[in-house]
């Protein structure tokens, strides 16, 4: 019998697939592993990576103090292109004229994901996708332990902790979103929109860093939908791991937007 494919070879093939977005047919030349074996190895290894990294690097806040440490976060969704699965018709077809699945995420001020939810079909808007997440279910049941309103530093008003979102999300007391373009009739509203957009860009930047490092996100993923979830969640867990342990080379300061006023 031939020697088994070692864990090192499995990990190498998986990381190369995530970082380059190359097909199984292409990877077989550099990994010396058959496409049939890769189609099993890569999803399994991706799932293992997520399970190992998640407890330490993709922890969801559970207590009042955990939320205060990050002061909530910015929410947005990223559409991930996929090859049309057999028999799915227009299930994943969206307004961009592509077949997509949505990665919904909450990001803190350090460009790290604190929650990722993947798998909703691309026909649904970001606000609608949010309703299908575990986060929303816990929020509706008041199980998130979000801190109560507090006095603003150097002020005399109590303000709630909120999530920063864009105009696609519903207006809620725990979400802050910009005014519509048609309603920008005062300087105060325009300044407010600028401040909200500056806070929300964190999640856009996080998606940009993720996609630039894991080029699989720039391709039309041609694997079974049930395996795409493992691949995407592994990318998010690896993003947090590399941001925390090797930020100088993974996301150096010069590639990030910064304000000095």
From TrEMBL:
Family the entry assigns: Belongs to the HARBI1 family.
PANTHER family linked: NUCLEASE HARBI1-LIKE PROTEIN, PTHR22930
Superkingdom classification of source: Eukaryota
Required co-factors: a divalent metal cation
Gene Ontology cellular-component annotations: nucleus
Domain DDE Tnp4, chain residue ranges per copy: 75-240
Protein name: DDE Tnp4 domain-containing protein
Signal peptide, first to last residue: none
Pfam families: DDE_Tnp_4
Source organism phylogeny: Eukaryota, Metazoa, Ecdysozoa, Arthropoda, Hexapoda
Keyword Metal-binding: yes
Location(s) in or outside the cell: Nucleus
Keyword set, alphabetical order: Hydrolase, Metal-binding, Nuclease, Nucleus
An example Gene Ontology molecular-function term: metal ion binding
